[in-house]
Structure formats: structure tokens, C-alpha cells
């Protein structure tokens, strides 16, 4: 009775139930990420958020064979809020992510390192599109999401790319899963590679930052390697994160051109429509973090808010994903991510030695 009265007090299409669900899942995932064994496995809040979202979507919202009423009660009630979390909260999270970067540190790396980052990112994206579309016959959205996660900055790049592509939640979940699988493998592999390759510390740090998927994974490797290699790896990785912006700009222009047939048909309004404004907000936050005197307490608070927004958005995407759709995708996205992993590990080593060694 009280449950029914509460529902009547809400507007017909209120986003509150879905937002509350996404926020609770995101906060729960962030809390779980601090408990054993997740820190030891280097599984962060974003990764756990999409897993928790998948479980909630399966157990709470998806209709069961015994009682199909659950989906009719909860699914439509949560849908508006989940959509807001997947779109507006995700965009805000990507914008605030720029506060993690400092352009001064990036520019101090020098032209050869920045060229290496750009070559790795462009090469991984191009190879991903070629293999994924021509060899594996995957759809364009799955290929771009998987390639962006491998090439740029893991789950954060997948989420930002999803916002431009408006991809289905299950494709996002698959792309994030591939980042987790091969990024986790990197954490155990790269400390061994330092011994096998014999690269001096700074050069190994450049190699790590230019080829490992996630910022958190780079930090985890740095903790094992230590010293100059760890510090260099993080800065090189953050320079790679900045390349998310030109990639999103290209993606917006490319999609607009596909819709119109040719860019000239779009006119000035079409060019503006192709700009992902949240990417420019990301740049603005990076510039502000570099040159404006932002109080440390305010910056720390905004970074916590950023993590919460991204975790809630990831949870919302997980809730909207059906496990059956993951099964339909099959092993091909994992095969694509595996081939890109080999390119990053082997090809990235060759490029690092060629350009800097």
C-alpha cells in the first residue's frame, strides 16, 4: 500500500528511481573496490560497477520465467533515470576527467615521446578497424569501442566513445570486458618484460605508458617497477589520454559524413553538430587544471564526484545490458582485443626502441 502511494507521488516519467539505482550500484562498486581481493587484483570501481549493474539487471529487472511481472513493474520505472545516467552523467564524468591531466607535464615529455603516443593510438585504431571489419566481420560500433579502449585509456575511452556512437549497452559491456581481461594480464606481464627486454628505467616507463590500456593498470605496474620508470609511465599514459579529444572529434565528423553522404552537404550547422561538446569540456578542464589556481580541496572533491558519476554511468549501462546479448556476440570481440593486445605489446616495443632507443 505504502509502496503504491510512493509511486503515485512521483511524476509519470520520473528519472528518480533509475538515477537512485545507478547511484547505489556505482557507490556499492566503489566500496567493493576497496575490499579484498579486488585491490590485489587491481579491479577498480568502474569495472565492478558494470558487473554489479549486469547482476542487478539480470536478477531484479529482467523478467523471470516464473514471474514475468517484475520487468513490467521495475523496468519502465527505472528506464528514464538510467537513460540520464548513461548520457548526462557520463558526459559530465568525461568532462571532469580532464582535471586529472596537466599539460605542462605532457609537453615536458618532448616531441619523440608524443609522436610515439600518437603513432600507437592511430596504429591501434586503424588496425582494429581493419581486422575487426574485414577479417572478423564485426559491426562498426563494437570495433570502435573495443579499439578505442585498447588504443587510448581503457574503460574511460569506451564510455566516451559510446556517447558519440550511442551504442547498445551490451556492446559497451563487451568492450569494457576486453579491457579488463588484457589490462589485467599486462599487470603481471610487464614487470617480467622489464627484465626480459633490458630497457633502461625511463625508456621502459615510456613503453609502459604508451601501450598499457588503463591509467590504473599503468599505476599498478609502476608500483611493482618503481622509480623513474613508474613516474614516466604515468605521464606518458596521461598524454595518451589527451588523444581522446581528437579521436572523438574525428568520430563526430566521420559519423556526420556517413549520415550526409559527404561533408559538404552538412553545411556550417552540420559541422557544429558533429562536435562532441563534452570532449571540448574535457579540454577546458585540463587547461583549468594546468593554469588556474584550483584549491586542492575543491579539485579532490571534483575528482571524487567524477569517479561517482562514471561509476553510476557504468552501472546504468550494465543494468541495461542483457546477458543473452553478450552470448550472441561470441568470441570475436575478444579475438579482436587479443590481436590489438599483441600489437600494443610487440609493436609498441618495436616502435619505442625505433623512435627513442
UniProtKB/TrEMBL annotation:
Residue intervals passing through the bilayer: 41-61, 106-131, 143-160, 172-193, 234-254, 266-289, 301-321, 333-356
Keywords: Cell membrane, Membrane, Transmembrane, Transmembrane helix
GO cellular component, one term: plasma membrane
InterPro entries to which the protein is assigned, alphabetical: UPF0324_pro, UPF0324_YeiH-like
Locations listed in the record: Cell membrane
Membrane topology qualifier: Multi-pass membrane protein
Top-level taxon in the UniProt lineage: Bacteria
Pfam family, one: Cons_hypoth698
NCBIfam families: YeiH family putative sulfate export transporter (TIGR00698)
Family assignment from sequence similarity: Belongs to the UPF0324 family.
Protein name as it appears in the record: Membrane protein
Source organism (scientific name): Marilutibacter maris
